[in-house]
From TrEMBL:
Keyword field contains Signal: yes
Native organism: Attheya septentrionalis
Name of the molecule in the record: VOC domain-containing protein
InterPro entries cross-referenced by the UniProt entry: Glyas_Bleomycin-R_OHBP_Dase (IPR029068)
Keyword Signal on entry: yes
Keywords: Signal
Region forming the signal peptide: 1-28
Gene3D superfamilies: 2,3-Dihydroxybiphenyl 1,2-Dioxygenase, domain 1 (3.10.180.10)
Domain of life: Eukaryota
Length: 275
């Protein structure tokens, strides 16, 4: 009888201990996601999924750190910043600010097209562009008398690595010119013949006429207008030299296709381009 009286308290204690442990495990299981969510929320992240993966955390961290990055400017070195400013004015750029960068005179040039809400999100929709001009001082250039230094002709040195050219989207410029010249093609008639009305070549011709009238100089063409399909878009493109010989690409979204062209990352067989 005595043994049984002792066993009962022991059994009761063991049962109570089992209940405590079970409750603790259950409480931890229920509250862990909440605690994790609270901790992550303090770090600007909120994960409420019990199946949190490291990839999700990394992705959210990258989005928080880099999601708002936008291109601020492209920098171009020049031997004469006044001449460079005149050249880029042909392309609609105006001086935003002048400043010093060490011994060099420098300037931000900005091109801010008129807002056009109906084009928002469309290929070639207007966006702000900014160029930084940096003038290399004469004492650093050390040009021999009667000579003039120019940028390396990257159109002829295709194996050089690094930044290659500045690309400007002139899609909207061409569209506006078509409207001004009453050369808008009805949607049902859009085809490859559209470029014969007013395309990139016509726009460059008009730009060259303006350059001659304003500065008495012809534009220097590095690559004449051509076409290339990227994804479902047919682009027109051409390359100019700026006042110092740096490459400038002019790009126009010519038209959209119903089909998407393969990336072409397989070994190139010379096909896949529109001539």
């Amino acid at each position: 009888m005595r043994v049984r009286m002792i066993e009962k308290p022991v059994v009761s204690c063991l049962r109570l201990l089992w209940l405590v442990i079970s409750f603790s495990q259950c409480h931890a299981f229920i509250t862990a996601p909440i605690v994790k969510s609270t901790i992550l929320s303090r770090g600007k992240f909120s994960y409420r999924d019990n199946g949190l993966r490291e990839m999700d955390r990394t992705s959210a961290l990258m989005n928080s750190l880099t999601g708002a990055i936008v291109a601020h400017h492209s920098a171009v070195k020049t031997r004469d910043i006044e001449v460079a400013i005149k050249f880029y004015s042909l392309l609609g750029f105006r001086v935003e600010a002048k400043f010093r960068a060490g011994p060099a005179r420098a300037a931000f040039l900005t091109n801010v097209p008129l807002a056009d809400k109906e084009n928002e999100g469309r290929v070639g929709a207007p966006t702000q562009s900014r160029i930084e001009l940096l003038e290399v001082p004469a004492y650093m250039l050390q040009e021999a008398e009667g000579t003039r230094k120019r940028a390396i002709d990257l159109a002829k040195h295709e194996t050089l690595l690094g930044l290659n050219h500045l690309a400007l989207d002139v899609t909207e410029c061409i569209r506006q010119r078509r409207i001004e010249e009453d050369m808008v093609v009805p949607p049902e008639e859009v085809s490859g013949a559209q470029c014969s009305l007013y395309g990139l070549q016509s726009w460059i011709d008009d730009l060259n006429s303006m350059s001659i009238a304003t500065f008495g100089k012809n534009l220097r063409i590095a690559v004449s207008p051509d076409k290339q399909i990227i994804g479902s878009t047919v682009y027109e493109y051409a390359f100019l030299y700026d006042a110092d010989g740096s490459l400038i690409e002019l790009v126009s979204a010519h038209r959209e296709r119903d089909t998407v062209v393969d990336s072409g990352w397989e070994p190139w067989d010379g096909s896949g381009f529109m001539q």
